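REQUEST ID: PR-0412
SUBMITTED BY: lab tech R.K.
PRIORITY: routine
TASK: structure prediction, single protein chain
INPUT:
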Amino acid sequence: MGRIAVLAVTMLLAGCTSTSGRWGEHATLVPGLTAIKNAAVRAAVDPVTWVPVVAAGAMTATGVDDDWSAEVGDHAPLFGGDAEQASTDLRNLTYAAYVVTALAAPSDDATRGWFSNKLRGLETGVLALSMEGLVSEALKSTTNRERPDGENERSLPSGHAGQAGAAATLAIANLDYLGLSGWARGSATAVFYGAAAASGWGRVESERHYLSDSLVGFALGHYIARFVQEAFFEAGRRDVSVTPVAVEDGFALQLAMPVGR
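STATUS: complete
OUTPUT:
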């Protein structure tokens, strides 16, 4: 499935061109405190971060989490007996999506500059996935929630859902550097998020996690990936635009540049 995943993502991105600068040129492992603060806040208020957490909390508070998770595990309606392997394959698909979109994104025309930008950019991706893994492991050790199959007390959050959510978020961010049409970008976003969600669902079908575990894992992965993307990958980015504006007896040039990163 891994080769098919890479081929599918590659075909989806074929023929794209850059619209948002050189990928990786602003990446850094030492962003300023302002960039870190702003990125943390924006990642937290992102609906893709808090909506799954609210849903998981509501399911737990109303007592339906155990019942619904047991129902999914008993019937395994999507993947059947292959749920555990399918979950891993889908997580790997999100990894492939991130790598392929990162390599496909236009960068410096010079060979040395291209490799330098790609290396810096991929370093931030590795940072995001590593941070998600470390935080997830810490939460597992803190919450001590027993898995549905009773194997151990490392159920919350789902590591598969967290890694898939982080990789999918990074891949979707890379789409900003590709000249995709609206429908192509929307389709790619749906595929990447869908793969991450299905990976988490597979862990419920295989009775390794509760539904709330996968929701929290996905939210954690998305939050960390978006935070790293904004604070580290785009830390030095400045998109400046100059637009002619009509005024009396002529025109003026309007300069726009985002601030606060």
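NOTES: Residues 58 and 181 are 37 Å apart (CA to CA).
REVIEWED BY: pending
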